[in-house]
Amino acid sequence: MRSLALLIELGKVDREVGLFRAYLHVRRFGLRWLFQILGTLLGPALRQQLINNSPPLWVFDLFKLVVLCQLAPKVANKRT
Question: Please, which pLDDT band fits residue 80 given cuts at 50, 70 and 90?
């Protein structure tokens, strides 16, 4: 996730990447703080769910979004 955060800061991530698009929505609506708190409160429970034999995919997606919000990369403007 740190590498994705770095790529976001460098402006190398395309807006077609689903996780990046979700992060942009979270930032736009000012909800990054909520996901940071969720990471603190639910992080261990999410990790435990991911350790199970067949965790739901949405749990993994939520976990990735929570971690990305905790890293809080600054979004670089792409220049073409």
Answer: very low
Q: With beta carbons less than 8 A apart as the criterion, state whether 21 and 27 touch.
A: no
Residue 39 has what DSSP assignment?
A: H
Q: What gap in Å lies between CA 17 and CA 8, rounded to an integer?
A: 11
Give 6's contacts (C-beta < 8 A, 6+ positions apart).
73
pLDDT tens across 7-41, in order? 888 888 888 899 999 999 999 999 999 999 988 99
Separation in Å, CA 40 to CA 14, 53, 76: 28, 24, 27
Q: What is the pTM of this model?
A: 0.82
- d(Cα 77, Cα 79) in Å, to the nearest integer? 6
- Give the count of alpha carbons within 13 A of 49, CB side only: 14
